[in-house]
Design goal:
mainly alpha; 9 helices; about 190 residues; RNA_pol_sigma70_r2
């Protein structure tokens, strides 16, 4: 959906149009889920997406349209994910196996990739340094421009370009040397 249409929905939703809120969520949900999937555990993606939309709906009256609705939503999702990580580091973790099927479904809810391919892609992205993974997912998976990604991440556009380039290098290196886990650094 074009950004102008999403902006119109956001303004209508801010005025209290419930159908516009529903339509805005429906039209952006896939981007938010795809953005959050590599940033958190598969079990938390849906909850973090819901929290993103709760915060976004509360903030709609202050949406000024200085950036696209997608950029605005992904910036909120980024803060939600960061808050979740901060909270998770304060409490003990429960050991368990990752749910790769949920990760595959969250990363591409309408696609049916082969399980092995999704697992490999998720593992490669997980091994990237967090800043590189974030920049790569925002630009290459969610499809935001480098300028919009810089706004979401709160850093200069050159930093985003550098992080994406280094993420690509790390991914290529990992594909050629799959035993080199965790080599990517910030």
């Amino acid at each position: 959906m074009p950004d102008d249409d999403l902006t119109a929905l956001a303004y209508a939703a801010a005025r209290g149009d419930r159908d516009a809120v529903t339509d805005l969520i429906r039209r952006t949900q896939r981007d938010v889920l795809r953005f959050l999937a590599p940033l958190t555990s598969p079990a938390d993606v849906e909850d973090l997406a819901q929290e993103t939309y709760l915060r976004a709906v509360r903030a709609l009256p202050s949406f000024a349209g200085r950036s696209s609705v997608r950029t605005w939503l992904l910036a909120i999702a980024r803060r939600v994910a960061a808050d979740h990580v901060r909270l998770a580091t304060r409490r003990p973790r429960i050991a368990g196996l990752p749910d790769w099927q949920a990760t595959a479904e969250a990363a591409a809810p309408h696609a049916q990739p082969r399980f092995d391919e999704q697992h490999a892609l998720t593992a490669l992205l997980t091994d990237l340094a967090p800043e590189r993974r974030e920049a790569f997912v925002i630009t290459q998976v969610a499809g935001l421009s480098y300028a919009d990604a810089a706004e979401v991440c709160g850093c200069p556009i050159g930093t985003i370009r550098s992080r994406v380039a280094r993420a690509r290098e790390d991914l290529i290196a990992a594909l050629h040397d799959p035993d080199a886990e965790g080599r990517a650094t910030a």
